[in-house]
Structures are given as C-alpha cells and as structure tokens.
Amino acid sequence: MKKINMVDLANQYKPIANKIHDAINNIIENTSFINGPSVSSFQKNLESYLEVKHVIPCANGTDALQVALMSLDLEPGDEIITVDFTFASTVEVIALLNLTPILVDVDPDTFNININSLESAITKKSKVIIPVHLFGQVANMEEVMRLAKKHNLSIIEDTAQAIGANYKFDDGTKKKAGTIGNIGTTSFFPSKNLGAYGDGGAIFTNDDSLAIKIRGIVNHGMYKRYHHDIVGINSRLDSIQAAILDIKLKYLDDYNHSRKKSALKYTNLLKNHPNIITPFIAGDEDSHVFHQYTLILKDCVRDDLVEYLNLNKIPCGIYYPIPLHKQKAYQNKRFNEDDFTTTNLLSKSVISLPMHTELDDDQIEFICKKINFFFNGLK
C-alpha cells in the first residue's frame, strides 16, 4: 500500500504533468505573466462550467470575499451575518472593512448555516448573509434566499470548499454553488477541489453592474490605466496559475466524482459504529463534493484517536478546533454561549480523514480498519 497523505497533489499532478509544463513554458516564453491570454481563457471556461455570466479572477479566496463586500456600498457598522463554524477568512474580511460580524450557529447534520439561527439574527442593521458551503456541501440556499428576499438582504456565497457542487431547488432546477446568491466567491488554494499551484481566487455574479464594479476593485479601482474611479485593491490571478487552473478545470467533475466515491466507501465501512456519525448529505449526492470527509465522534477522547492515527501513519485534521466567537481577534460581549451549542459541540468532536482524488480502496480500508480497532479497544 502506498503512503497515505491527507492531500496528494503530487500524484494528482502526474497524469497532467506534460500539459502543465507546456502551459507554463508558453507563458514564460511569451512573458504574459499578468492578465495574459491564459487568464481570459480560464475566466471564460469557468463561466461556461458554472453557467454564470461573470467570473472575475483574483489573487486568493480571502480577497474574493473582501472585494465582494466592497462592491455592495456598505457602511461601517452594517451587520454581516455568517457562521461561527468556519475558517477565519470569512469573518476576517468583515472586520477589516469595519463592518459588524454577526455569528450564528450551524446545523448539526450539514454543519452549514442554521436557518432558525439566521432568522433570529436579522435586524434592521443587517445587510448581507454569507452562507459558507462547508466541507463541500451546499447550504440550504432555498431558505437563505427566502430570508434574504423577505428582509432585502444581499447574499455572498463562500464557495471556497464546494466548487462544482450542485444545489437542487424544490422545483427540481439545479444551480452550481456560488451562482445562486448575488455574488459567489471561491479559493484556488492548492488543496481545494480545484486547486492552483499557489494562491488564487475568483468572484462570480450574474449582475452586470456588480461585475463592472468588481472588475474595477480588483485592479486598483481602474477601468482606464492611471484613472482611479473607485477605491480598489491589487488582486490579480497571475497567468501561470490561470493556465494551471484552466487545465485542471477540465478534470474537476472527475475529481469530485472520485471524492464522492471515496466518501461512500468510508461511510459504508464506518456507518454502523456507535461512536461515529458519518457525514450527512442533504438532498442528492450532487450537493456534496467532499472537500473534507468529516466525522463526529461520540463518547471518546478525540486527542487519543488523533494520537493513535498518527502512530499508524494515518494523517487527519481538526476543522475547526476553536469557534470564531472564541478566537481572541473576534471575541465580543454580544456573543452568548447559548447561541452556539452546535458549534461548540462540533469543535470538540469532529475529525477529518484523508480525502483527495488519489485515494484508493486499500488505503480507505486500512484507515477504517484502524479506526474500528481503536474503538473496539475502548470497550
């Protein structure tokens, strides 16, 4: 059995190595390093894949979120509602723009935004909802859209972990994650389902006026060279990363299918264990692309399992060990512990197993065998 990796980018690279080399060499030879043809090509191909009118590439997923907020003409103190159980970048950009982060609890099954908590958090100061499609599963966008429409709120979808996932509405129609709200954002960090070989990100929208504004913001507020019409930032996807992403985009559905297949294998081997809750899929299988395969552990000490897995050379991850409302940078007296029951529980009990496109059955069977052996030893 080959070595088990949490993410196996080296083996994912091998089948496309020649294409990657040719694309990089072409850019170096023609010196089109910034805003070259490869950026335009990737943009157009991603628009076609997502079936969205506008894709605006940028430097990373955090910038994508910040630019999305900057495009909405918000005022300091405006309230932005998002989840407590996610990576810090989602709330980080809210704080950087002097907006007010309102953190809410998540659903205990999907780990995505809890609709009841969301509705309770809406006030007259609320301006934006940022649902995070955590671990690869699309949030309950039908309900998020309903509440946004009712209260005249904008929606920015954080799709950093769920690119390629589909959301099915009650009427049977489907849309890609990130194309449902007013704006979608994503990250192309190397470990993502669609990952670059460095930093990268993108912003999606079907709104023509927002697209124009966003294109200016990511380029120093310029639409004409040296004419700065709005306040912007420097956030460009470089040509080499765009070329790599353009190649990998052609394989994204295959990559996601591979992840789903591995997830099903994990679940079949672990689903009946009393100490383990396997991932819940809301809707059909297309709604989850398994950026992470995350278990909830019951009646055990998680650190003991982590130590045991490490001894057996099985990597694992804890996403996320500290809720945002407890992070030093974001602590605030307005947060009430009773409002974060699920998040607090998850932060103490979740564990993510290796998940990537190169996992094979032998590796998954070995991992599950060791996990089952660990729990049997507790009895």
Explain what you see.
The model has no long low-confidence stretch (mean pLDDT 96). The two termini are 29 Å apart. This protein folds into two domains: 9-249, Aspartate Aminotransferase, domain 2; 252-378, Aspartate Aminotransferase, domain 1 (Alpha-Beta Complex). The protein has 379 residues and is of the alpha/beta class. Strand 4, helix 7 (141-151) and strand 5 (154-158) form a beta-alpha-beta unit. The radius of gyration is 21 Å and the shape is globular. The strands form four sheets. It has a seven-stranded mixed β-sheet, with helices on both faces. Strands 12-13-14 form a three-stranded antiparallel β-sheet. A two-stranded antiparallel ribbon has the order 6-7. The protein is built from 13 helices and 14 strands.
